[in-house]
Amino acid sequence: MKILFITSNRIGDAVLSTGLLDALAARHPEARFTVACGPLPAPLFAAMPGVERVIALQKGPYGRHWLLLWRRTAATAWDLVVDLRGSLFAYTVRVGRRRVLRPEARLRHQVLRLSDLLDLAAPAPPRLWVSDAVAVEAERLVPAGALVLALAPTANWPGKEWPAARFAEAARRLTGPEGILPGGRVLLLGAAAERPRAAPLLAALPREGTLDLMGEVDLPTAYACLSRAALFIGNDSGLMHLAAASGIPTLGLFGPSRAERYAPFGPNCAVARTPESYEEIVGGPNFDTDSGKSYMISLAVDQVVAAAERLWQQRRKAL
Length: 319
Hints:
Elements: E1 2-6, H1 11-16, H2 18-27, E2 32-37, E3 51-56, H3 64-73, E4 78-83, E5 95-100, H4 110-117, H5 132-141, E6 148-152, H6 164-175, E7 185-188, H7 199-204, E8 210-212, H8 219-226, E9 231-235, H9 238-246, E10 250-254, H10 259-262, E11 269-273, H11 278-282, H12 301-318
Parallel strand pairs: 1-2, 1-4, 2-3, 4-5, 6-7, 6-9, 7-8, 9-10, 10-11
């Protein structure tokens, strides 16, 4: 059985779709998958069982990326095409069945939307795999034996970023003698281009206790490193969804994005958001996505630390 799985350009959305791919593999264990997605999330699918080809689909002008995808897939007779980008592509190739994600008016979590596309009995949480080599590398980078607080202080645009200095203060309190992770090390993850925006955090953290991997590892390695951490705190980002998929306690910070749709998904996840709602922020008179300003200023350190402590205690009670 041959299945073409078309998912997002964005890391977070692609991660959220991995549960659907896993459900398909469980339903059709003999299936061979081709995954088409953006270049950034493409490495996440390489080690997934049943995936024989990953097509990195670079978005082009006038929809030319669809023509390129058609040229690479049209010769195959597909048993199923799953298109999570809501395009007409599934109607241009030979296929037995099609499942195409359509827009919907109601606001609910993306995992629920995706799970309903295949009429699943229960939501399909994100799931990722890594190669043995990646697992070994993560063990070298994040050695066992120490509590590790993972932080992702950046996002795909500055408006969603909690101030870096507040990340530093939260880390100091959580890993201090009275914190929930006393003596813990801090793991930093993010893209190399985002390092300047994380500068206040980098400057505030002690060099000896910091595992600074910003811009140093690919996404599969970042995921494997996150799975070795004790707790994650980060903005609404792809790294937040990677942390949730790894199963560690994951606290997502939200302001000008919808937690109802994009909160970290899983039993060990929680959200801390600004006192202002999404509608109040984006509907405000001075909202400007190009301004470079953060819309997360009103989220206090006390609120984030308290949410992290609650999440940590809930996790400990469940063990």
